[in-house]
Amino acid sequence: MLSSLDRELLETVADLHEIPMGAYNIRKNGEKEGRNTTGNIDIVTKTDKDGIDIIIKPGTVGESVHIPVIMSSSGLKDTVYNTFEVGAGSDVLIVAGCGIHNPGEESSEHNGVHEFFVRKGAKMKYVEKHYGEGEGQGKKVMNPKTIIEVEEDGVVELEMIQIKGVDDTLRETEVRLHKNAKAIIVERLLTYKDQFADSRIVIELEGEGSSAQVISRSVAQDDSVQKFYFNLVGKNQCMGHVECDSIIMHHAKVYSTPEISALHQDANLIHEAAIGKIASDQLIKLMSLGMTEREAEDRILAGFLH
Amino acid sequence: MLSSLDRELLETVADLHEIPMGAYNIRKNGEKEGRNTTGNIDIVTKTDKDGIDIIIKPGTVGESVHIPVIMSSSGLKDTVYNTFEVGAGSDVLIVAGCGIHNPGEESSEHNGVHEFFVRKGAKMKYVEKHYGEGEGQGKKVMNPKTIIEVEEDGVVELEMIQIKGVDDTLRETEVRLHKNAKAIIVERLLTYKDQFADSRIVIELEGEGSSAQVISRSVAQDDSVQKFYFNLVGKNQCMGHVECDSIIMHHAKVYSTPEISALHQDANLIHEAAIGKIASDQLIKLMSLGMTEREAEDRILAGFLH
């Protein structure tokens, strides 16, 4: 049974106001809470380890899969392995958030290993939102690992967002692109207090005509620390572009290490990174409209992380 | 005695058509070949290890020091430690190239460790050019290590150029900037055949108001490999900008890893990197003016590395 707290977590991490249409699998405190499959999308519990196989038939267009994870106990450590087979020529939305409500003093940790096989010509939009909350001092820890293989002419669009309340995270993303395959990755990350976030994105542009775009935006507040490592590896005629911007505030620290590796004469790779504080002219403009400094800051940060 | 070959090397690496005016120290095959000091600039042989101390009096303006190193034997391994004291308020040019003519089959290697103390309000322009040539298969190896401490209001401008003919190089540059100190670093690097170049530049922006700009341009041809690692570490209110562009050709490989580390809320750090091939529209334009493809390529590369 989903409590009202569970429903709030689901709404935050998976935009679910009610039980979703289409295929879904809701995991709560390490157990299956609910599941639905459709004619085109099957969900099968793994037998060798904890997790599910999501199998999307070739040619499945306009359908979605929601696989949110929610945790509401303190001191729980949950690890799950999910495998996605996105059939050739399909066009689907996959939503996979994680929300932790930790009421106590012990750490609650979710480790999600997601492996995707995006077959020939398939399109996948993948949305992952992370959110933590709770009355106690128990940490909310989330370590997502995302491995994506995109076959010829496939397109993946990833939206990976750490909304708030995650104390510790190691976010690992690996994408391999074959001929004419394309990846667009948008990352949004907020840390504050003494939170720590480490994000690593490696994209291998293996196929001729493959392309990748990464846009990473983060805000680091208080005493939080963020580390970014990106690597675009161009092994063929390809295009790659990484753009990462961080706003740093208070006593926060941001380390940004974006590597580009050109292993082919027709690899075209660009990287841009910037770390700085909120533009003072923006602050002044909003304050001249009657906002307090704090309100103006919040407005700018919300726009930046939108 | 300087042979005509020596004179050619000196001209290439230190723009010296004859014995320079002002202070100089010429090192040939690991030995002192000539030296001149002036009323303001003293050069003293180190007693504890191989190398010299260059002592520039406070307030020395408009003078230069040339300290070229040339090697013309095969199988020589030369390591030298030079220390530069650039007195407060002075404004000087220091030229420190290395030219190796390796006539034989054994490696010739020069390792130069240069340490600079740029005192309050001093300005230093430092030019370092590396060049190798030779009839045999013996490698030309150069490993420069450059450590620079820039005191309050000091300004350093570095021009570090690997002209050609260097088979293997590890270039390490460390700069520490104090209050309102400024560094401008321009690097130019060409590799071809199976040459390998590794360049590491770390700039610590320690003082309030310090600023750094790094512009790195490289061309990687044939089977050569280039690795770049830059790190701007902002520890105070500061500005830092790294811009690195590489042209990749043939079967060359370029790995570019520029890190920016913001450890202060008023650190403003930007990095841009791009790796790609020669723009085809530029090639076509030059070829339409009557150049062969090869001539057009050479013209574009020369402009890029200028």
UniProtKB/TrEMBL annotation, chains A, B:
BP-aspect Gene Ontology terms: iron-sulfur cluster assembly
Domain of life, per lineage: Bacteria
SUPFAM superfamilies recorded: Stabilizer of iron transporter SufD (SSF101960)
Domain SUF system FeS cluster assembly SufBD core: 83-304
Entry similarity comment: Belongs to the iron-sulfur cluster assembly SufBD family.
Protein name, UniProt field: SufD family Fe-S cluster assembly protein
